[in-house]
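dumping this here before i forget
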Amino acid sequence: MAHSPLAKADPGKAIRAIADLAQAAGGTGMVGGQQMDLSAAPGSSTAAEVDEIELRKTAALLASCARMGAILGGGSPAQVDALGEYGTRLGLLFQVTDDILDETGSFEEMGRDRQGSGAGEVDLPRGPRDAGRDRAGRGARTGGLAAISTFGAEADPLRELVRMVRNRRK
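structure:
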């Protein structure tokens, strides 16, 4: 990133983007969320704990990716925030969908055997998982899509990503 034309044009933007990614990947983001996930006793996590883990994992990284694009592209602070909110909602939808597919997807759909929860990873019964997917889907459709509503047709590919993640079977 430091050698990209965008970074050379405005090194301050590159520093902001790198700092954002470092935070999303570190102890308060992906690494911390993964540690929480692996430390949890199977079946013992509350819905709030699962939400926290999912916010810190895929959601944190996708939010950072969206913010970095806005930062490097010269977006306003409001645009950076809006794209971050979109990324968070998309990440939650992706994570919940992935967790459900690990439990319910067929070999034919996914190209691999169902995994179930890994050793030490959080586990919720099917009902709460399905409710979580529905909640994440609504959140991505409402909050995430609302966050990018001011971008107009330019954000149509981002809207399509929400539809693809929501409907994916592998």
